[in-house]
Amino acid sequence: MESKNQSQFEDLLPIMAEKLGGEGLIGELCNGFQLLVDVDKGVITFDSLKKNSALLGLQDLSDDDLLGMLKEGDFDGDGALNQMEFCVLMFRLSPDLMEQSHFLLEEALHQEMKYY
To answer: CA-to-CA distance for 42 and 91, rounded, in angstroms?
Structure first.
């Protein structure tokens, strides 16, 4: 499922994490989810992914690539991606970000604990 576009995305996600911090990155991932979601179903389906993928620069991905992406991220087996599955998939597709995830988790916990 590797494509030129995926590599570009992987290179940008760690930079986004560094600039935005953990909370900001999650917010941006949620915005990305909203761009791809089937508004009637509240999840990303194959049809909504195919229809909206150009918004994220993924228009060159084949149907097999799109199906593979859905399959890889679909933990509950319903054939679609909910918001949590989408965010986890984005982290998994970025090995550099996975290495930084410990820092992002600590930062998010620190931010959360400020209010207690």
So the answer is: 21
Residue ranges of the alpha helices (H) in the chain?
4-36, 46-52, 63-73, 83-92, 95-113
Copy the structure tokens of residue 96: 């550099």
Report the distance separating Cα 65 and Cα 112, nearest Å: 37
Question: Using CA atoms, how far apart are residues 78 and 101, in angstroms rounded to an integer?
Answer: 27
Convert the pLDDT of each residue in 78-102 to its tens digit: 999 999 898 888 877 765 655 555 5
Dihedral pair phi/psi, residue 43, rounded to 5°: -140, 165
- Supply the pTM of this predicted model: 0.66
68-90 residues labelled b (16+ CB within 10 A) or e (exposed) = ebbeebbeeeeebbbbebbbbbb
Assigned token pair, 100: 């930084």
